[in-house]
């Protein structure tokens, strides 16, 4: 999936990936896609929950060798 | 725009581990777009006390209490396995190694996110803690009615 921006959260535990995602999404335009990479397993349930709470779209997830990539589309301004 | 959902939390405990739980929840809720109010009472007040300088409290007993109970984010101890500070030292080391923010960093982060931190006026009175006992950016003291007013309007309320 092609992303407009990336965010590296490898090595960070909850709540930092969510905190950083919220900060970066704020700087992006509606419709743009953010790729978050992380290795804290909690993110697989955390990010969809964050997207639901904030009204953004969780477009998909890929896992490769312990590293998880999540794609989020900014929906709300 | 619709009014933000509220998240309120009573921070009663002044232990390092419990403070961490409170700030993880608070910063996550703020990241989820919620308005967050943290109400610090009793031992929890130690978390938001200044790390440096002494405080002027009234009466011998309060003066003694505040010598024994110094407070400040850098002086918090683990609720279990403190082992005269060794356990706490090890936990702080593990937190650093896993890039987990310290309580001090959590407080700064929370303030940047606009999280409101309110000291309980009754506890401040009983323990002899004037307004200048606290670090900068802490709100003015309030009582239980203020907290309950906020809690009534909250989606989520926790007590730690």
- Low-pLDDT segments of chain A: none
- CATH topology (fold) name of chain A: Translation Initiation Factor IF3
Unreliable residue runs of chain B: none
State Rg of chain A: 11 Å
Describe the protein.
The complex is a heterodimer of chains A (77) and B (160). With 77 residues, chain A is α+β, with helices and mostly antiparallel strands. Chain A has one domain (5-73): TusA-like domain (Translation Initiation Factor IF3), CATH 3.30.110. Chain A has two helices and four strands. In chain A, strand 3 (57-64) and strand 4 form a beta hairpin. The longest helix of chain A is centred in the first third of the chain and has 12 residues, at 16-27. The radius of gyration of chain A is 11 Å and the shape is globular. The mean pLDDT of chain A is 95. Chain B has 160 residues and is α/β, with parallel strands linked by helices. Chain B has a single domain, classed as Hypothetical Protein Ychn, Chain: A (3-Layer(aba) Sandwich). Helices cover 42% and strands 12% of the residues of chain B. Chain B has helices at residues 16-31, 45-48, 60-68, 86-97, 103-112, 121-127, 144-152; strands at 6-11, 35-40, 116-119, 156-159. Chain B has a four-stranded parallel beta sheet, sandwiched between helices. In chain B, helix 1 (16-31) links the parallel strand 1 (6-11) and strand 2. The termini of chain B are far apart. The model of chain B has no long low-confidence stretch (mean pLDDT 95). Classes of the chains: A alpha+beta (77), B alpha/beta (160).
